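Key idea: predict the complex, not the pieces.
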Amino acid sequence: MLIDPRFSLLLQPQADARLEKAARIFLDHLRRRTGMLALDFAIAKIPVDGHTSLAIRSEAPSPPIQTLDEDESYSLTVQESGAELTAPSTLGAMRGLETFLQLVKTTAQGFGVPAVAIHDRPRFRWRGLMLDCSRHFFPLEVIKRNLDGMAALKLNVFHWHLSDNQGFRAESRRFPKLQEMGSDGLYYSQEEMREIVRYAYDRGIRVVPEFDMPGHSTAWFVGYPELASAPGPYAMERRFGVFDPTMDPTRESTYKFLDQFIGEMAKVFPDEFFHIGGDEVNGKQWDRNPKIQEFMHSHQFNGNRDLQAYFNERIEKLVSKRGKTMIGWDEILHSDLPKKIVIQSWSGQQSLADAVRQGYRGLLSHGYYLDLMSTAASHYAVDPLAEEGASLSSAEKEKVLGGEACMWAEYVSPENVDSRIWPRLAAIAERLWSPATAVDVDRMYARLESIGDQLDMYGLTHNTYYSEMLQHMAGSHDTSALRTLAEVVEPVKGYSRAALAQSEPTALMPLNRLVDVAQPESLTARHFAALVDELISGQLRPGVEPEIHRMLGEWRNNAPRLRPMAENSALLREVMPLAESLSALGAAGLEALDYMDRGEKPGEAWKAEQLAQVDQAASSKAQVLLMIASPVHKLIQATAGEKPTELVVPKVQP
Amino acid sequence: MLIDPRFSLLLQPQADARLEKAARIFLDHLRRRTGMLALDFAIAKIPVDGHTSLAIRSEAPSPPIQTLDEDESYSLTVQESGAELTAPSTLGAMRGLETFLQLVKTTAQGFGVPAVAIHDRPRFRWRGLMLDCSRHFFPLEVIKRNLDGMAALKLNVFHWHLSDNQGFRAESRRFPKLQEMGSDGLYYSQEEMREIVRYAYDRGIRVVPEFDMPGHSTAWFVGYPELASAPGPYAMERRFGVFDPTMDPTRESTYKFLDQFIGEMAKVFPDEFFHIGGDEVNGKQWDRNPKIQEFMHSHQFNGNRDLQAYFNERIEKLVSKRGKTMIGWDEILHSDLPKKIVIQSWSGQQSLADAVRQGYRGLLSHGYYLDLMSTAASHYAVDPLAEEGASLSSAEKEKVLGGEACMWAEYVSPENVDSRIWPRLAAIAERLWSPATAVDVDRMYARLESIGDQLDMYGLTHNTYYSEMLQHMAGSHDTSALRTLAEVVEPVKGYSRAALAQSEPTALMPLNRLVDVAQPESLTARHFAALVDELISGQLRPGVEPEIHRMLGEWRNNAPRLRPMAENSALLREVMPLAESLSALGAAGLEALDYMDRGEKPGEAWKAEQLAQVDQAASSKAQVLLMIASPVHKLIQATAGEKPTELVVPKVQP
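Result:
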């Protein structure tokens, strides 16, 4: 069907307020998607003559607070004459609207949606993104645009990590020193948090707040040192890692404080779930405090784990009292806690399965850590019901609610955070929504690129952040040479950035280096590797070899272009060894192609020299990796008549 | 001096609240400019040990409402050891902060500011941008980011065109049907308008609201037809142009209404000036209304001009009564009005000089209409004190307050409006701030490109809007071929877009065609023309000819790349004749180069054929112009041994 100025939405007369709001948001997006911003697409309750309409029928209105078990299924039929979207609930209709929007295409007749019949429902009920707003603070607009992106991908939980050692980001009116002394003035007012809750609800997303306790809590103690297990004073932590400050679980005043605090926050966040963190308590303050030791002894606790379980039991009662269900990380799992709590597993499917076998519900986050700079393919391969999860009974599998991607914020600022979330989050979103059988990686990447571009329309900056940061680095309007380098590198993986740092990273350091600019996954390098594989396979399409040649040539010629710029830029100078390596790889690859073209086999000396160069190029520099090292390695091997093998990058890791 | 984590701002102890706010905004921008978003640059009142600081001293605090005559001068001295900014007023210090920010460069040691000593002051007191929010509505965020851009360019007046035939965009609580019936729900609440006033004040910008009367006022009459000179009912006008509906100046009830309305708005907008529009009254409703005719007769009015002057006199009293000074367009000029009013001239320097000679103060907007798609160079050449203005006495020249760029909104949406304002507004801003002797066009363009990129940091979309719109047109992720075309075209100039339209343009039409995407001024075409001039001059640098060759080759090869895409895109199909012309020009240019290379003179037949092709290419298609027609024309002439001449584009105008 065509999307032209006569397109209209047809709502059933008894449509609820949420659906009406969703319809308006949908039309805003449709206008943006088609560039018809000035258009006033109609929302009608009875068919409009001469209009082509998308008729929406939801069989049940939405509850005022979105629930875990709300039906998200929908059916969408599109024909030349119009479209129909039906769903058992308003929430399902909202999901169907996102699908419709994704189907809009540029066509020979104008914008249009192809004829389809879709019956769709999510595989998991909990599909989330956790954003750490403590280690770095993100303004409201950053959160809003990411909520828009989440809604486009049908994600339904925003897990808001609001406190940690590095900052307390929520306004408490009862305990104002929390944010006044623990946030550098960077916190969300209650009105702002309510605004986010409303914004998310309008987009079919629940908001689960997390206040991490009893560990990861230094920022609480700046204003309220009496909560800690050792005397203060405390200051906001600037470093990253696991630190000693921990709440004192032995004092009644701690629970009195937390009771009031949880009560206050329970009013701000209407969701059923309340996240108490509970991870990474190192116990050192407990070990050193004689009163705490005495308390543990008198309660016959067998170590700190029992003490934390005692704390969690007390907190669980406070959470329950406010009508909420407690959720926490793996470490809160303890048989003393009621079965209704939810375990979020950062440590893996085994831990998740353990919790489920004990009767708890669980979520998977292991394998979905966006800050570790893994590939979309690796996230896509992680399934909450694979590995140990596959051995669960169907009843147990029901208790695996879904998963959450985690964006921990040690190394992200408002400038580059979108680029760390998108487009990779789309792969995780698909894993959690689509059937387990959807595993074709190449097709996933094709969708990822297209979705990645479509998301621009929400103001997400994962595509646009790049040029501004490159300009600052280059100190010049002409960033093409630097871009050539940036597009084939990736930040080092896992936790190695800290290990490779020259001085200890802190929350106050500039995030303006190439490692902060480089995309987590280089699609250019991925594309080049695929071309090389095709070349080596011998079954290559026309144009592949010239394209490889062109790319290698561009890389070879790149260092000379960057050298003069580096004289005037400290940020660029840092990455010149990388630029030189890129040029060397380009030259080596071109020589290999030459040998191939001539049908000549190079000598051993040439091969040894080239492979040594590749090894050198494959080592990380300035916390950045050159991702074309492996395909060039293969080219050299193939030229030398060896069977090509993948080179593990980084080759050398200190 | 270096800008590193030890950079701090040093404020005098008695700094006023506005300066403290400006300091915080400055640091936000500095963080963004350097990518050091996580950094907590200090604001200190006493020097911090080991810090390099920018010390700011303002000799007088700001009044709570910015005035026309506030001193904006400042002195800035930067040395290796630190910087000092002094100004007679906080407003001057704010201007100096923008200069400092512009001086930040990427250097070999990190970010830095070169040693300078600057004494700076504006040439004109009134340097504005008018934005028409009636013909199209712009959300708050659009206005805010443009205010940021204005502040960066030291502009000091935001003239907010809030009502016109196509929409009434301001909330009135006294007369709510104005916005309820006259805006499609697209209006600014009073709280939002106050928010803009505050936002602008914090950036050194006054906000002057305009409510156009007695003409350009259809939108008022939808809710209040009794204000009009003919019975209703009225509907919001969707077309563009001059229309009949006009307020009835003969009824006391009109003035009673306007008195209350102006009183209400005077509270929302604290600025001294209140703009009443006053332009383009066609008088037809007056001519046809017997009661109005009788009134004119009894008052011995000599035509409609006198009636409008009577209306303006009455309105002027209402505006004065609220402590405001009236400002309006040329047409309000009438000797019956007090000399304190200000005339904004859309019709030219002659009209401005006439007003000034009669003792009024005036502003120039003629020559600064951004919607007419003129070049930055042409705007830059317009000087309020040139032409007739040059003959004014110095006392008269003092009455020329400055100028205002005008962004009329017939053909702009939130998606492309920034691209119509920026970067060309920077050329007008420079004209109004810098000495009249700054006239070097090439250097202006160099600054324009650099400023244009720097403005990205405020979220302005003049650079980024492009890729999203091209994607929608192309219906593909790969927009490179379409971009090649888009980058050498410009929308038709002046008022010819409407004249060339197939159906009458309206406020509801989609703005998603190439004419809406194409930048007002093609810098690629400008660059190409310069290269061709260099080639023809015979004094060419190495690399110029290959670059011309490369560009022509890309254009020649472009139509075949676009043809298959056009099969699937109606928006693209519309511009295929243009793409074919571009390819033809590329081919013609390459042939001309070949003749030159061979030192051979082509025959007359070749020349005639090529020039005919250029003529064809130079005619507008789909309301778009191909801007490389003229330089290719020159190439052909030069090859044929003729003296090259500029080709006026468009060659053929219906």
